[in-house]
Design goal:
Blueprint: H1 7-16, E1 20-22, E2 26-27, H2 28-31, E3 35-39, E4 44-48, E5 54-58, E6 65-70, H3 74-84, E7 90-94, H4 100-104, H5 115-128, E8 134-140, H6 144-155, E9 162-168, H7 179-189, E10 195-198, H8 205-214, E11 218-221, H9 223-227, H10 239-253, H11 258-272, H12 279-286, H13 290-296, H14 300-328, E12 341-343
Parallel strand pairs: 1-6, 2-6, 6-7, 7-8, 8-9, 9-10, 10-11
Antiparallel strand pairs: 1-12, 3-4, 4-5, 11-12
Length: 384
């Protein structure tokens, strides 16, 4: 979920029953250069870019979590995955984003016409990471035969599952998802790994309906979870009265950026309450900080309590680091040393050493930790 699948949304959907949560798409070229930092003030692991901006944030409760990656080559993908892998349960390669920037950079939907590149990235990750939880998400090609052939090619890399968005590259969210087409593709591909379907799943009852209709093993939800993140509960909760306030509390607790928090709340209201937003939507547009969002939902007390707790934790962390440095450094130099959702498959298969690694295509890591060859990759950020 573009710009939506940040930490507070992942935690919220897990709370409501999601089995596995995916991050927003993160570009490999940016992630590979991030610095891992333990944020003691809010108990998170942060990956920070060279400007100190949080690119990816996770925490102990954010499990199982899959990082969705945008990459155009195996070199960048492996460097990024190696950097972040200790803090995620798997990596999902985005092969379906149709946005101009992603496609222009050779990522997302551009990979659909480059099956060898997809194969190279997936096998390189599998050969060099200590897990088999490497997957990818595709879109439909022009014909059933082409789509089935691509899925079969991807499955031959021995990934444990593949996801398919039930739309063409040219389709937009307003275009109906092509469940019938996916059903035919799944039948033609005849894979022995789980197929995860995504597209037009807006209520709890759709989980069983789409699986029965298409033969898919599991369900991935994006817009349905934006419309109401409690879709994973048998009885969805009221959006304005219960769900959004819970999201805001998590955004405050994880110190989520104000712009991202505003965006996510706006998207929930647009999707879930298109005709009944009221003046609170206009007031939300004018809010400039998390405290202001809390005030709109009468959560000032929670904001104050979390702020006090965070400040105490930050002060304690600072003093602890200072004491540790003073104990370990000479007195003269002592100083303070200042980081889409699946239903049905609870957890992807772990790697227990199965398979002959020597027979799997892909790049091996050399002594310097880099694959043996390199390619150029476009872009280091994505707005899609």
């Amino acid at each position: 979920m573009v710009r939506v699948g940040t930490l507070p949304m992942r935690l919220l959907t897990q709370r409501y029953g999601a089995d596995i949560t995916y991050s927003e798409e993160i570009i490999a070229l940016k992630l590979r250069n991030c610095r891992r930092t333990v944020n003691h003030a809010i108990d998170t692991i942060d990956y920070l870019d060279t400007n100190g901006v949080v690119v990816y944030r996770t925490c102990e409760q954010d499990r199982p979590n899959i990082l969705q990656m945008g990459s155009a080559d195996a070199v960048s993908a492996l460097a990024a995955a190696t950097n972040v892998f200790p803090d995620v349960d798997g990596i999902d390669l985005n092969c379906g984003c149709p946005k101009h920037f992603s496609v222009q950079g050779g990522m997302g939907a551009a990979l659909l016409s480059k099956p060898e590149t997809i194969r190279d990235i997936l096998t390189t990750l599998q050969r060099n990471l200590p897990t088999r939880n490497i997957t990818c998400k595709l879109r439909l090609l022009a014909t059933v035969a082409e789509s089935a052939q691509l899925m079969q090619a991807v499955a031959k890399t021995n990934i444990p599952a593949v996801a398919i968005h039930a739309r063409y590259i040219s389709d937009r969210p307003r275009d109906p998802a092509r469940w019938d087409f996916v059903r035919d593709v799944i039948q033609a591909a005849n894979l022995d790994i789980p197929v995860i379907i995504n597209g037009d799943i807006f209520k709890y009852e759709d989980f069983a309906r789409v699986r029965e209709h298409t033969g898919a093993s599991s369900v991935m939800i994006a817009r349905g979870a934006i419309r109401n993140p409690s879709i994973f509960s048998t009885a969805p909760l009221p959006l304005m009265e219960e769900v959004i306030p819970e999201y805001i509390k998590l955004a405050v607790a994880t110190d989520n950026h104000i712009l991202n928090t505003k965006y996510v709340v706006q998207q929930m209201m647009k999707e879930g309450l298109p005709d009944h937003r009221g003046d609170i939507f206009d007031r939300l547009n004018r809010v400039k900080n998390l405290e202001g969002i809390c005030a709109l939902w009468n959560l000032q007390d929670q904001f104050s309590a979390l702020s006090v707790s965070r400040n105490r934790s930050r002060d304690s962390s600072f003093l602890g680091e200072q004491q540790q440095q003073q104990e370990t450094l000479p007195a003269a130099s002592a100083e303070v040393v200042s980081s889409v959702v699946v239903v049905g498959e609870k957890r992807l298969r772990d790697n227990d050493g199965g398979g002959d690694r020597s027979s799997t295509a892909g790049r091996e890591v050399g002594e310097e930790g880099e694959p043996s060859s390199s390619r150029l990759c476009g872009g280091d950020s994505c707005t899609c």
